[in-house]
């Protein structure tokens, strides 16, 4: 029986591919064959890495172009829309864990919120909600409605949670 790769394994494999080659250009079928995945896995994989600020991608018909996000301009601070949403959530009782204005993500605080629901705001203007399952020096492991994710800390502007 063939073992299916987890979303985390596919994310790491794609990041390594982009680090090695710079970008991927080809058909969706070639991409599926390269990572040995089914078609229904492609979009969730790409969206999870785009949400974490690691890649940008374009699909035009059957052609797909995937580039590291470092090729794009990313704002260093929160967007106006993110600031409004964070302010609203803080008034609802959410707690601020980390923010780019506070100097980054702190391990002691993260240990206290393992298995709690968090909202992560990214430098590229997107966000993701899910349960924090673990972390290390560089990444957070999240379970969201899109599945398991690895989120790189350098892409994060703010993390909030409801105690």
TrEMBL record:
Identify one Gene Ontology CC term for this UniProt entry. ribonucleoprotein complex
Q: List this protein's GO terms for biological process.
A: regulation of DNA-templated transcription
User: Keywords in UniProt for this one?
Assistant: Ribonucleoprotein
Fetch the InterPro entries from UniProt.
Hfq, LSM_dom_sf, Sm
Q: Does the keyword Repressor apply?
A: no
- Keyword Ribonucleoprotein belongs to the record: yes
Q: Which residues form the Sm domain?
A: 105-163
Q: Which GO terms describe its molecular function?
A: RNA binding
Q: What is this protein called?
A: Like-Sm ribonucleoprotein core
């Amino acid at each position: 029986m063939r073992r299916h790769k987890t979303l985390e394994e596919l994310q790491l494999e794609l990041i390594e591919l982009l680090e090695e080659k710079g970008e991927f250009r080809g058909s969706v079928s070639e991409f599926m064959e390269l990572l040995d995945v089914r078609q229904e896995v492609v979009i969730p994989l790409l969206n999870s890495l785009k949400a974490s600020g690691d890649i940008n991608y374009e699909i035009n018909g059957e052609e797909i172009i995937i580039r590291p996000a470092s090729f794009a301009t990313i704002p260093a601070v929160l967007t106006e829309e993110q600031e409004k949403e964070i302010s609203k959530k803080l008034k609802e009782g959410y707690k601020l864990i980390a923010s780019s204005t506070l100097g980054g993500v702190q391990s002691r605080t993260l240990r206290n919120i393992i298995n709690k629901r968090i909202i992560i705001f990214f430098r590229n203007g997107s966000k993701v909600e899910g349960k924090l399952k673990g972390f290390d020096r560089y990444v957070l492991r999240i379970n969201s409605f899109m599945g398991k994710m690895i989120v790189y800390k350098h892409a994060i502007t703010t993390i909030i949670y409801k105690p």
